[in-house]
Design brief:
The complex is a heterodimer. By secondary structure, chain A is an alpha/beta fold. Chain A has helices at about 40-50, 70-75, 95-105, 110-120, 130-145, 160-175, 190-195, 215-220, 260-270, 280-295, and strands at about 5-15, 15-25, 30-35, 55-60, 65, 80, 150-155, 180-185, 200-205, 205-210, 220-230, 240-245, 250-255, 270-280. Helices cover about 35% and strands about 30% of the residues of chain A. In chain A, α3 (about 95-105) packs parallel to α5 and α4 (about 110-120) packs antiparallel against α5 (about 130-145). In chain B, α16 packs antiparallel against α21 (about 465-480). Chain B has helices at about 10-20, 20-45, 50-60, 60-65, 80-110, 115-120, 125-150, 160-190, 190-215, 220-225, 225-230, 240-265, 285-315, 320-325, 330-335, 340-375, 375-380, 390-420, 430-435, 440-455, 465-480, 485-490, 490-495, 505-525. By secondary structure, chain B is mainly α. Classes of the chains: A alpha/beta, B mainly alpha.
């Protein structure tokens, strides 16, 4: 059974379509990276999953239950970190963490103090004095202190410093090891690359690409920098070769990943002296889709 | 030196640009209210005999504690009475405006991170504070001059030009003093909320100091600026010296605020911030625990205020008979019914008014659930195992409890003090009945606010307008003899004013039933809508 299943979900606010027939599946023990530009619909999709918004059409389920109708039942087993953490200015961080943990009902608090220490948070300060990063820490501690089956994290590290970001990544890895499922919406692509098994790219309310990182890489190009004994011929005009440039170090170009094998065997005839290949980063992937999305 | 104040001018202009609507509302409200009441007072107490009786009533210690000593009793003119009744209250209202104004433009901007942006520009370190103070000065001058001129506009003999200008100046000077005091508190405390509450506590203490002083010792009154300003004896002797003293103190306070602002860091206060609890108390473990925590302070303050209000009204119950007897207009209101004394008839009208005032905290507790949603707090709650019904109930329950508690406090306040000041005071049971008859009306307002929250969340404060209408139709309606049907459009007007009116069981049952239906619709609707930020 899938932990999260979004089937053809459409959400309209008046005439504005925030989500357009979105599909998303998250299996048990999987870490799903949910990426997309600002305003693409990530937060709306997450709010539909949380039962805070009701889908106009389609069906969203968590643990097989309807996300809107069974919200309370579902929420006993999930932990959530919002993208914009708004807390009560006159409550302290410690009070908010305890309140959040208690509102999920029947949770152990074993990790609470440990997590507060790891995230280097002062729980006796009022929330009004916290910076964005500190408010995020409050939400993260409350989330990881609860023994949930599914973690929904909406851009959880946008205000954290690099040190805290690595603490966060440790927490995610630990949860992953414990066979928990995680939906991670993020802007930080290196983070998604490091943590996620599956990636979904959303733009303008539509999922435009989804799959494992390896699968997605096939759709893109690999950068090659090569120096050979004899000058290479026959690359110009090949539809799989792009941005061909010649410089003192040799030839630089990018190649469609699906044609990588043929191109390499072609080059090898010219006696390779040096070859460097850079796999496509998620960033390039993202930029390409982002630009495509812009053209529509 | 100039460096510190660089570009104060542009910041001051910006403040006026930013808050022009708010300024207009404050000014029209304060000046309009003061000026419009002058002819009302003149009409209400037309003859010298009536004024003389009124003067006697004002010498009652309870009234002195409330508004200050009576001056010019030998020749108690409309002007003397107007200043006697109005001056301290108008000074307080202007003070409240100044407190909000200064905190808004200093500490609040600092807390929201706007000050940081301003400070990164080529402006002086003290420019923002100076702009807040200068703009406050300008507002107070406008209030002083326009109120002064406005009061003379009706051509009432005893409201002469010098007295009127002094009246306006007292309002402006008292207001500016509190602007300066607030500016000092803004430097001492570490956040907007504490600065605001310190300023209000300071205002309250000075008011109490004056009350104690006016009853017991002139010196205490002179120490309190609110007592000092009454020594101008407006429309009687028109002394200006208290104004000069107050302005001197104000200047010193401004200098202190500027100095403190110069030596402190942005975002901090000079008083150390106390560390809070690092774990939550066991009470804070449900939406209801949270809502009580959030509403606690304001509910306590409202309970105290309502009780105090009731006790103050009750302190004049004893003088009511002679007072109403002497006033033609009030006699007209209460003359129709001869089975009940004037005092009793006055009490049921007061009860209606108190019940409507008590509705304000009930509504504000309920509407807090919408505020939580708007501030993004509710998202944290709903992401956990909390249903919509639980969340709505967390605010409905305190609101409901308040509706009962506040009426109880009103009845108790009337009874406890009333039985001391009156000869034939009604029993506690009568007061309780007269109060609790308004429960269904308050519940209807509460239910209405819930329906708004469920179906028109963005418009939910409209329910206050209906409450305002109720107030006008019942209260002003009684004075100005508005047609009967205007009252019938409000649940408060429909409620029988027992014991003077007969008990009307069907009406009470219908009102209660309507309230229950509104509750149900509110709960039902809140479950099926999207949360809106």
């Amino acid at each position: 059974m899938s932990m999260v299943k979004i089937e053809n979900v459409t959400k309209r606010f008046g005439r504005f379509t925030a989500l357009d027939k979105v599909n998303l599946t998250l299996e048990e023990g999987e870490v799903y990276g949910f990426i997309g530009p600002n305003g693409a619909g990530k937060t709306t999709a997450i709010r539909v999953l949380l039962g805070i918004l009701q889908a106009t059409e389609g069906k969203a389920t968590i643990f097989g239950y309807d996300a809107w109708k069974k919200a309370v039942e579902i929420h006993k087993r999930i932990a959530y970190v919002p993208g914009d953490v708004n807390l009560w200015p006159n409550l302290t961080g410690g009070e908010v963490i305890d309140l959040f943990v208690r509102l999920r009902k029947g949770n152990n608090k074993v990790y609470r103090n440990d997590l507060i220490e790891r995230f280097d948070l002062d729980p006796s300060k009022k929330c009004r004095t916290y910076s964005k990063g500190n408010r995020q820490k409050v939400a993260l501690v409350a989330a990881f202190a609860s023994d949930a089956d599914l973690y929904i994290l909406d851009e959880p590290t946008s205000g954290l410093d690099p040190l805290m970001e690595s603490v966060f990544q440790e927490c995610v890895m630990e949860a992953k090891k414990a066979k928990k499922s995680i939906l991670l919406s993020s802007h930080i692509l290196s983070e998604v690359e490091k943590l996620c098994d599956t990636v979904g790219i959303i733009n303008q309310g539509e999922i435009i690409e989804t799959g494992t990182l390896t699968e997605l890489r096939h759709l893109t190009r690999t950068s090659i920098s090569v120096k050979t004994a004899q000058p290479i011929t026959g690359l110009k005009g090949d539809p799989h070769i792009h941005d061909l440039q010649e410089n003192p170090a040799g030839l630089v170009f990018s190649v469609d990943t699906e044609a990588l094998g043929t191109v390499i065997s072609h080059i090898s005839q010219f006696n390779i002296l040096n070859l460097e290949s850079t796999p496509p980063t998620l960033e390039e992937l993202f930029m390409r889709h982002y630009e495509q999305g812009g053209e529509k | 030196m100039h460096e510190l104040f660089a570009d104060t001018g542009s910041l001051t202009r910006f403040v006026f640009r930013r808050d022009r609507i708010q300024i207009l509302i404050w000014l029209i409200g304060i000046i309009g209210f003061t000026v419009v009441l002058a002819p009302v007072f003149d009409n209400l107490y037309g003859t010298e005999a009536e004024l003389a009786v009124m003067g006697e009533t004002m010498q009652n210690p309870a009234m002195i504690a409330m508004v200050g000593p009576v001056y010019g009793i030998d020749n108690y003119t409309t002007g003397a009475m107007f200043a006697n009744m109005m001056l301290v209250f108008m000074a307080i209202i202007v003070a409240v405006m100044n407190i909000f104004w200064v905190t808004r433009h200093t500490r609040q901007d600092e807390e929201l991170g706007r000050m940081e942006v301003v400070r990164s520009l080529p402006v002086g370190r003290l420019a923002k504070l100076s702009a807040a103070i200068i703009s406050a000065l300008i507002l107070n001058i406008i209030i002083a001059v326009v109120t002064g001129l406005g009061l003379t506009a009706f051509g009432i003999d005893s409201l002469n030009l010098e007295g009127s200008m002094l009246f306006g100046t007292v309002m402006g000077a008292a207001g500016f003093f509190f602007a300066a005091a607030t500016a000092v508190f803004c430097q001492l405390t570490a956040n907007n909320r504490t600065a605001t509450s310190f300023s209000f506590i300071f205002l309250m203490l000075l008011y109490l100091l004056r009350a104690a002083g006016d009853l017991k010792s002139e010196t205490l009154s002179l120490i309190s600026p609110l007592g000092l300003i009454l020594r101008t004896k407006v429309y009687v002797d028109n002394y200006w010296w208290p104004i000069w003293i107050l302005l001197g103190v104000t200047a010193a306070a401004i200098a202190l605020a500027l100095y403190l602002s110069k030596i402190r860091d942005l975002g901090s206060g000079l008083l150390p911030a106390r560390p809070g609890r690092s774990t939550a108390s066991p009470l804070l473990s449900s939406p209801l625990g949270l809502s009580f925590r959030l509403l606690k302070t304001s509910l306590l303050i409202w309970s105290g205020t309502i009780f105090l209000f009731a006790a103050m009204y009750a302190s004049i119950f004893g003088d009511l008979e002679s007072f109403i007897d002497s006033n033609e207009m009030l006699r007209a209101i209460f003359a129709q019914n001869t089975d009940f004394s004037f005092a009793e008839q006055f009490i049921v009208l007061l009860m209606a008014i108190m019940s409507m005032i008590s509705t304000i905290p009930v509504l504000s507790a309920m509407l807090r659930v919408r505020t939580e949603e708007k501030l993004g707090h509710a998202e944290n709650i709903f992401a956990r195992a909390v249903s919509r019904t639980q969340q709505l109930a967390a605010y409905f329950i305190p609101a409901f409890i308040m509706s009962i508690l506040l009426l109880l406090l009103t009845a108790f306040g009337f009874w406890s003090i009333g039985s001391i000041t009156m000869n034939n005071a009604p029993s506690l049971k009568t007061f309780l009945q007269a109060a609790f008859i308004y429960l269904p009306a308050i519940w209807i307002m509460l239910g209405l606010s819930m329906v708004f929250i469920a179906y028109l969340p963005d418009k939910s404060s409209l329910v206050y307008i209906y409450l305002g209408y109720s107030f006008i139709s019942v209260y002003i309606g009684a004075v100005a003899q508005l047609p009967e049907w205007t009252k019938k459009l409000s649940p408060f007007g429909l409620t029988p004013q027992i014991p003077v009116d007969d008990m009307n069981v069907p009406i009470v049952v219908i009102l209660t039933a309507v309230a229950l239906v509104l509750f149900a619709v509110g709960f039902w609707g809140y479950r099926r809508r999207d949360m809106k930020m």
